[in-house]
Amino acid sequence: MESTSSSDSDGVVSTVDRIAEQGRMPFYDKASAENLAPLWRVLHGLVTEQPKTNAVPAHWSYPTVRPYLMEACEIISTEEAERRVLVLENPGLRGQSRITQSLFAGLQIILPGEVAPAHRHVASALRFIVEGSGAYTAVAGEKTTMEAGDFVITPSWTWHDHGNPSSEPMVWLDGLDMHVVNLMSASFRESGGENERLVTRAEGSSYAEAGCNLLPIDYKPASETSPLFSYPYRVSREALYRLSRSRDIDRHHAYKMAYINPVTGGSAMPTMTTQIQFIPRGFTTEPYRSTAGTVFSVIEGTGRAVIGDAIFEFGPKDHFVAPSWTSFVLSADEDAVLFSYSDRIIQEKLGIFRELRGND
Ligand code: GTQ
Question: DSSP readout, 30-78?
Answer without folding.
Answer: HHHHTT---GGGTHHHHS-SS---S---EEE-HHHHHHHHHHHHHH--H
